[in-house]
Structure formats: structure tokens, C-alpha cells
Amino acid sequence: MTSAEQSLTFFMLICAVPIAGVAAYAFRKRDEPGARGLFLCELGMAGWSIQLALITWPTAVMPVFLNTTIRHVFQILVIFGWPLLVLEYTRRGQVTVKRPWLVALLVVPVVTVVLTATNPWHHLVLAPETPGDPSGIAEFVLGPWYIVHIGFAVAMVMLPAGLLAQDLRSAVGDHRRQLLLLIAGWAIGFPGALNTYVFRNVDAVPPYVDLTPLLFLVTTVLWGLALFRYQLFALAPVSRRKAVETMSDALLSVDTEGVIVDSNPAARALFDVNGNCTGDDLESVCGEYPAIVEQYERGVTAGTEVSLESEGEVRHFSMDVRPIEQGATATGTLLLLRDITELKEREQELDLLKQVLSRVFRHNIRNELTILRGHAEIIQERADDGRFDDHVAEIVANTDRILSHSENAKDLETIIDAETADERIPLDPAVRRCARAYADDHPGVEIDIDVPPEVVVSAHPSIERALEELVQNAVAHHDGSDSIRIDVRARPTDGTVRLVVADDGPGIDSHEIETLQAGEETDLQHGSGIGLWMVDLVVRKSGGSLRIDDDSELGGTRVCIELPRAD
């Protein structure tokens, strides 16, 4: 043996070591989809490389036909491992092959192993001219069944690559990188295994030169990147495809020429397409709906409402148009249509209900309550003995409370409907305006203000109306004593301002706080008014938070509001 042959033999054995290591790792992960196929491929490539090294050894370690038999067994592991890897990876689940299919697929491999093991009797795999101690498989003289074995192997490893190439068309991110590494490893390793059959026709290449173990090592490195760097077993790329196929939203992928390259069942059902519409122009498929083509031609949009009429029925959709990019290059456009017909109808029903309630609150009930209050006052005036004073006072108080709810409901509706942006609001002047209004109308109300004049918040324009409601709520729910104390304090923190409104009243009922925290009114749990809902809405629209609890200093209610601090 020359030094070159010896070096190459040891190099083949060294290449098999990391390949076997990846096989061991895949075996430990064998419950993951794709791991079984990867284990068979790596184990087969490791054993294949070792048998090639033994062929190159200076002395015959075993008969050529026996070495070839063992090598064919390892080749069969690769032949079946690769399709198994691809199928489990693309379907993202372990694959079970039906018994008839398995038997049919095993016919050629079983015959190959049997014929190779009995080759000295018939020479159908290796011709009699094959040397008894060859320098490499390049000196093999192939029999007819060896050619059948090669053809079967090529077919088995070529077809699964098509599945990966198909997935590659719509893959993005780590899924795309996984596919590229799997395909690159396949393109290098499996066709590269035929290198000796090419080199045997090149006189300048010695017969012992076989690059198959090296190419298998490169394949293992590429697959290792997909395995460890991009989490081949951890990520579920097919879940993305599965989601697209089962989602109720219509999805179309269009290339730069306006040709549809992909669609999901929801899109085909929406546009009444039988079969696959891949390869059709977008205008031909969506010709009955010019609004879709118009939005596509406008370019990138999000949440645009389009209405489609079909057979007298109008359906409403929210349409997104997004670019498909590979790196810095735009390769197409994604069209997403979400059916919002039920939502639109629900919005119309709620709008109608709001108009009716608003009209009743603003006009009918308010007018009738005003008339009722007037009659109560007339009764009080005509009853000289004062025997109806308590009843009249109760009527007037309840009437005023309902009228107050009506005003709050009107304000709440205005806040909900208004499309306004947050404003820079100096907090000290706003608080003092509220305090001044109540000091004039309620001499017994003492409002202590501690707000730094430099504090400015970014809040909804109705924040001052919310402050008025908090002060009014403290006055209205007091226990009736002559003096009422309300403290208003503000302290700036990191990026926010904490505003506290506290009073010395009896405190707010716990069910009022629970209702507000729950965010809804129920039959068993509801608040007594609308004011706190309005305050909560204004604070949330300002990007802040609201908390209500008992005040430890004054003994009443403490409302704590966090608002963003203006830059």
C-alpha cells in the first residue's frame, strides 16, 4: 500500500466518526418527526464509509462479495431513510407505511442482498472479472442486477427531493433555511456517491480514490446545521402550511407578473374555482370582483374593507395586501381576505341600538323626567302642611340622579365615538378648574390640591371631564355631613404621572369596584351609575390605568390613576 492509499483509508474511517455521532443523536430523538429517517441515513452513510475503507485496505479483510453485501445493507438504510426523513418532516408526524406498500418496496432491496450474498454462484451483481483484492470499487465489474440496484436507489432518493423543492416555494425564515440545508446535503451526498463510477473513466484518477465518505461528511455537516442551528426537530414548518390550508381566511400568493402561484381552499371556494388555480392570472380568477384587483394594484394595504356581491348576496371582507420578499428582492404579493360580514352586521345592529337608546335617553326619558320633577315641585308648593315634603324630596332626588345618568351616558357616547388623539395637558390647571367649580357650588367641600405645576400628561381630551366625575362622585356619595374633604395629589414617576383622588366619605361599595374590574355588567353584579365607567374609559384611551381602593389616611375612597407623562 502506498502512503496515499493508507492516508485515504484512514481518512475514510475518520469521516465515519462524526457521521456516526449524528446518527446516535438522531436515535436519542427518535420520537421526533424526521428523526427516524435521519438516523437511518446517518447510520447507513457511516457503515457505507467504513466498508469503502475496508475495500481500500491493502489486504483482503473479507471476501469482496461479503463486503459488498454489508455495504448494500447500509445503502438500503440510506435509500429508505431519506424518504422517511422527508415525509415525516413535511407532514410533521411519524409515518406508517401500509403492509402491501412496504412489501412491494422491499422486493428489490431483499433480492439485492440475497443475490449479493450468493454472488459467487451466479455473478449477477459482480461479474467474474472483478478482482479478488481490488484497490477500490472503481475496479468492480458490475453485473446486471447491480445496475438494477443503482436505478432503484436513484429513484428512491430523487422523488422525495421534489417534495422539499415544492415546500421551498412558499417557505420563509428558519423553515426555508432548513429546507435549503436538507436539499444541499442531498445534492452533495447522494449524487456524489456515484463519483467512483465517473472516476473509473478518468485514467488520471487512481482506482483507490473514493470521495464518498468525504461527501457524506459534508452532507452531515449541512444537516447538522439544520438540526442544531435551526432546530430541525423542534420547529414545525408544516404547521404553517397546515394552518394556511385549514384557515377560514382566503389566501392568494401572486408573483410579480400577476400570476397566482398558490392558494388555499378558502380562496378557491370564495372565487368558485374548481381544482387548482395556480398559473392563472389574478384578473381572470377575480374578474367578477374588481375591488380585489384594484386593491392589489394599489400595493401594500392593511385592513381595507371590500364588499363582494355574488348571486344577490353582499359579503364584506377585510383585505390585506402584503409583499413577499426574499432578502431585499420583492418576489410577489400576498392577498389575505377575512370575512367580516357577521361582524359588519353586528356593528350595524349595535349602531341602531345605540341610536334608539340615545334618542330615548336624550329626548323621551329626559323630557318626561323634567315634567315629573316639575309636577313634584308643584305638589310640594300646594301642600301647605308639608306632609308630602319627604316624598317630593325623594322624587326630586331620584329624578336628578337619573338625569345625571342621562348626561353621563351622553358624555360616554361622545367619548366612544370621538376619533381624537392624546393631547399634552398641564395637570395642575385642569385640577384647579374642577376644584373651583365645586368650591363655588358646595361651600362645605374642602379640596386640597398638591399637584406640581410642571407636571404635564399625555391624555385623552376628556381627562378633565373624568376628573370632574371623580370629584362629583366623592360629593354625591358623602354621608351627609356639613364638611367634605377631598385630596388631589400628583407625583411624576419614570415615564408616568400618578394622580390620586381621595375623600373622607363612607367609601365605595365593593361590588362597584368588582363590576369595574370585571369590565362588564351582569344580572348579579352591576354598578349604580355610569360615571366610573366613563372615567375608566377615558383613562384607558389615554394609555393609563385605574385602581380604586380604601384610603388609609382619610378613611374614604382612593382613586389612583396612572397616566403617561408628556415628553
Q: Which stretches are low in confidence, meaning pLDDT under 50 for 5 or more residues running?
A: 521-528
β-sheet strand percentage: 15-25%
Task: Name the strands of the widest sheet in spatial order.
Answer: 2-1-5-4-3
Q: Tell me the overall shape.
A: elongated
CATH architecture assignment name of the largest domain:
Up-down Bundle
Sheet with the most strands, sense and barrel status: 5 strands, antiparallel
Polypeptide structure, described:
With 567 residues, this protein is an alpha+beta fold. The protein folds into 4 domains: 237 residues, Rhopdopsin 7-helix transmembrane proteins; 93 residues, PAS domain (Beta-Lactamase, 2-Layer Sandwich), CATH 3.30.450; 77 residues; 145 residues, Histidine kinase-like ATPase, C-terminal domain (Heat Shock Protein 90, 2-Layer Sandwich), CATH 3.30.565.10. 56% of the residues lie in helices and 16% in strands. It contains 19 helices and 12 strands. The strands form 3 sheets. A 5-stranded antiparallel beta sheet has the order 2-1-5-4-3, sandwiched between helices. A 5-stranded mixed beta sheet has the order 7-9-10-12-11, with helices on one face. Strands 6-8 form a two-stranded antiparallel ribbon. A hairpin with a 4-residue loop joins strand 1 and strand 2. The longest helix is centred in the middle third of the chain and has 42 residues. About 1% of the residues have low confidence. Keywords: ATP-binding, Kinase, Membrane, Nucleotide-binding, Transferase, Transmembrane, Transmembrane helix. This is histidine kinase. One of its GO terms (molecular function) is phosphorelay sensor kinase activity. It holds the Pfam family PAS_4. It catalyses: ATP + protein L-histidine = ADP + protein N-phospho-L-histidine.
